[in-house]
Amino acid sequence: MKKNISIILTTFLLVTAACALETSGNSTASTGSTAAASTKGETNMNKTTRVKITVKGKTLYAAFDDNTTSRAIIAQIPMTLPMLDLYGDEMCYRYPQTLPTDSVKSYIHKKGEIFYWPPRHSFVIRYVSTNEKLDIQHIGQIESGVEIFDGIGNVDVKFEIDE
User: Fold this and answer.
1) Candidate from 39-48, 81-90, 126-135, 151-160 with smallest mean pLDDT
2) C-alpha to C-alpha distance for 96 and 57, rounded to whole angstroms
3) CA 69 to each of CA 63, 81, 99, 131: distance values in angstroms, whole numbers, following the listed order
4) What gap in Å lies between CA 148 and CA 134, rounded to an integer?
5) Distance separating alpha carbons of residues 137 and 83, to the nearest angstrom
6) Which residues contact 73 (CB under 8 A, 6 or more apart)?
7) SUPFAM superfamilies, from UniProt (predicted)?
8) 7 in helix, strand or coil?
9) What is d(CA 110, CA 113) in angstroms, rounded to the nearest whole number?
10) Residue 105 burial by CB count (10 A; 0-12/13-18/19+): exposed, middle or buried?
11) What is the pTM of this model?
12) By three-state DSSP, how is residue 73 classified?
């Protein structure tokens, strides 16, 4: 009986510690750039950064929100990511490490939305609306032309700050 309680307590402590690390906001992506410093929980959803997105010679623009995850991604720009065309409705790049988050919420995402899905470290551009509800960190929104991704397959996507 004491052994079972010890195992349960140890498992609980490990899970609690892992959750604390996941939500601490102290991790950064390992893509050759250092993420911008920020205070946990500090967000200003009114401020956005305009990002130029180039795919197969065509240009799109997106407004990236000002939050911890967006700032970590913006700190890596300019960058070109090999994005996977998943499920016929999203483009996805999976970071090798967790990105920091400060406002993960569960909701149905829409066409043109850019978000981060923490469980798989996935940076996603949604090009078709679905009724799927996930816990995600919103990053931004494509202004127009997101249909370019429909049926494109796996492709390199370039991201630059629009000056």
Assistant:
1) 39-48
2) 27
3) 14, 16, 6, 24
4) 24
5) 18
6) 29, 64, 99, 116, 123, 139, 159
7) Cyclophilin-like
8) helix
9) 6
10) exposed
11) 0.72
12) helix
Identity of residue 92: C
């469980």: which residue's tokens?
119
Segments in the chain forming alpha helices (H): 2-23, 68-74
Q: What is the DSSP letter of 121?
A: T
Contacts 24+ apart (CB under 8 A), 151-154: 151/85, 151/88, 152/55, 152/56, 152/85, 152/91, 153/85, 154/82, 154/83, 154/84, 154/85
Q: Which two tokens stand for residue 101?
A: 């988050």
In this structure, what token pair is assigned to residue 66? Answer: 């000002």
Buried b / exposed e over 4-27, threshold 16 CB at 10 Å, is eeeeeeeeeeeeeeeeeeeeebeb
Candidates 138, 126, 139, 141; CA nearest to 90 is 126
Q: What span, in angstroms and rounded, lies between the C-alpha atoms of 57 and 59?
A: 7
Identify residue 45 by its one-letter amino acid code.
M
CA atoms within 13 A on the CB side of 8: 5
pLDDT in tens, 105-148: 998 989 999 999 999 999 999 999 998 899 999 999 999 999 99
Structure tokens at 84: 């996977």
